[in-house]
Amino acid sequence: MVRTASAAGSRTGKVVHGTGRRIRRATAAEGAGESGLAKLIELHALNAFGDMLITVALASTIFFSVPTGEARGRVSLYLLVTMAPFALLAPVIGPLLDRLPHGRRAAMAMSMLARAVLAWTMAGVVTGGGLALYPEALGVLVASKAYGVVRSVVVPRLLPSRLSLVKANSRVTLAGLLATMVAAGVGGLLHLIGPGWPLRGAFLVFVAGTLMAFHLPHKVDSAKGEQRAVLHAEEHPPGHHGVLHGRTAPAQEPAPEPAAGQRPKASLRTVGPSVILALRAMAAMRWLVGFLVMFLAFLLREEPIGGLPPTLALGLVALAAGTGNAIGSALGSWLRPRSPEMTVTAMLLLAGGATAAAALWYGTVTVVTVAAVAGTAASLGKLSLDALIQRDVPEAVRTSAFARSETLLQMSWVAGGAVGILLPLNGALGLSVAAAVIGAVLLWTLRSLLRVGVRHRPAAPRVA
Questions:
Q1: Which of 23, 270, 274, 355 has the fewest CB within 10 Å, making it most exposed?
Q2: Do the beta carbons of residue 27 and residue 42 sit within 8 Å?
Q3: What's the rounded Cα separation, in Å, for the pair 415 and 81?
C-alpha cells in the first residue's frame, strides 16, 4: 500500500509539474515571458480564481439557500448596500489611480490583500447571511474593480513587440476565463465541506496574488511622459493628434503663458470620436451583460426554461455565456481587424438582434443563444475598443484613457444589474426592455459611424 501510494503521489506530482510547465510555456509565448506580460497573465488568473471562489460563497448564501422571493429581497439588499455606494465610488477610482502612476504594483497588491482580509472575515459570518456581510462584500467589489482598472492600464506597458494589444488582452482574458471555470468546480467542492471554506480558499489565493503583484516588472510603475485623458469626442485638425489643450506636437503653436498669479490650466486631452463611439457601444453591451446576469438568475429559478430543473437551466445559461466569452476572446486573438469601429458596431447589432429574438420567441434555444451572443459580443467588442484606444489615443494619455474607460464600463454593468433586479419576472417583458435599450444605442452608434467613418490609420506607437 505504501509503495502504491508513493507511486500514485509521484505520478500526480509529475502530472502537476508537467501541466505547470505547459501553462508557463503558453503564457510566455511570443515574447510575453521577456516583456513581463506572462507574469500579469498568471496574476490575472489568480485574481479571477479568487473572485470566483467569493462568488460561489456569496451565491450559496444569498441566492440558493433561501426561497426565490426571499432571495430576491436579499439580492436587492445586496445591490442597495454594495452597488449603490460603488456607483458613487466608481467615478473616483479612475482619477484616483491616475494620481498614483508610480504605485501600480502596490495598488494591485493592495487590492489583493484587501480581498484576502475581507474573505477571511466573511468566512466567519457567511453562514448567517446577516447585514455584516454586505459592507464586506462592498469592499470586495471595490477592490476587484480597482484591480480591473489598474490591470487595463498595465497591459500596454508590458506589451511585447511581437504581440498586438488586442492579442495581449485576449490572452489575459482567456486566462481569467479558464481560471474561473476551474474555480467554480473547486468552490463547489469546498462548499460541500462548509459555506465558509470557499472564502478561506479565496484568502489563500489572494495572499499568493499579493506577493505575485510585486514580481511584475518595475516598468509597470513608470509614468514617464504620461498625462491624463478626457473622454471627449471632439474632432481634431490634421496633425493635432488628439491634444485639446496644453503642450502639443511640434507643429502646433506653443500654449500661452499663464498670467502672473494664475495657475496654468490642466492638460485636457480628448480621445477622439472613434473611441467614444466604441466606448458607448461597449457600455451598452456591458449593461446588457449585467442585466442578463441579474434578470435571468431570478427568472430561471422561478420559471425554468423548457421544463428543466432550475439549477440545470441556470447552469446551461452560464455555460453558454462563458463559452461565448471564450469564443470572443479567441476570435480577437485570431482576427486582425482593420476597422474596429465596424467590429464593435456589428457586435452591438448582433447582441441587439439576439435579445429581440429572445423577447419575441422566448424559450430554451433563444435564451441560451442570447447568453452566448452577449458573451461573445462583449468580449470581442472590448478587444476592439482596446485596439481603438491604442490606435487613436496619444501615447502620453493612453494609460489614463484605459483607466477611465474601464471605470465607465464597470458602472454600466452595475446599472444593468440594477435594472435586471427591479423588473418584474416576465421573460418577454424583460428582454423587450433590454432589446429597446440596445436598439436605441445601436441607432446612436450607426449615426456616429456615418459621421466618423471608418479609419485605417496604423496603430499609434506602443507605450515604452
A1: 23
A2: yes
A3: 14
Question: 148 versus 18: which is more confidently predicted?
Answer: 148
For 153, 301, 411, the CA distances from 69, given in Å and listed in that order, are: 41, 10, 27
pLDDT over 60 (residue 428) = yes
Q: Using alpha carbons, select from 384, 421, 186, 185 the residue that is nearest to residue 279.
A: 384
Percent helix, strand, coil in the chain, to 5, is 75, 0, 25
Percent of the chain with pLDDT over 90: 19
Q: pLDDT band at 93, cuts 50/70/90?
A: low
Pairwise CA distance, residues 398 & 405, whole Å: 11
Please, what is the end-to-end C-alpha distance for the chain in angstroms? 58
CA-wise closest residue to 175 among 194, 200, 193, 155 = 155
Average pLDDT over every residue of 397-425: 78
Length of the chain measured in residues: 464
Question: Which whole-number Å values give the CA distances from 405 to 51, 150, 257, in the listed order?
Answer: 22, 11, 31
Q: pLDDT at position 235, please?
A: 45
DSSP state of 195: T
Residue with cell 511585447: 160
Residue 240: per-residue pLDDT:
39
Classify the C-alpha dihedral 382-387-389-392 as positive or negative: negative
Quickly tell me which residue has 482567456 as its cell.
174
Cα(156)–Cα(14) distance, integer angstroms: 35
Please state, rounded to an integer, the average pLDDT across all residues of the chain: 74
The CA–CA distances, whole Å, from 246 to 94, 257, 273 equal 21, 10, 20
Instruction: Report angle CA 80, 86, 92 to the nearest 5 degrees.
Output: 155
Looking at residue 188, its pLDDT comes to 84
* pLDDT tens digit sequence for 155-209: 877 878 777 777 787 788 888 888 988 998 898 888 888 888 899 999 999 999 9
Residue 222 CA to residue 104 CA, distance in Å, equals 9
φ/ψ of residue 265, rounded to 5: -65, 145
How far is the C-alpha of 18 from the C-alpha of 30, rounded, in Å? 20
Judge whether 50 and 209 are in contact, CB under 8 Å: yes
Ramachandran area for residue 147 (φ above 0: left; ψ -120 to 50: alpha; else beta): alpha
Rounded Cα distance, 136 and 139, in Å: 5
Q: Which residue is listed with cell 498670467? A: 259
The packing angle between helices 197-213 and 37-58, to 10°, is: 160
> By the 8 A CB rule, do 152 and 402 touch?
yes
Question: What integer pLDDT is reported at residue 99 of this predicted model?
Answer: 61
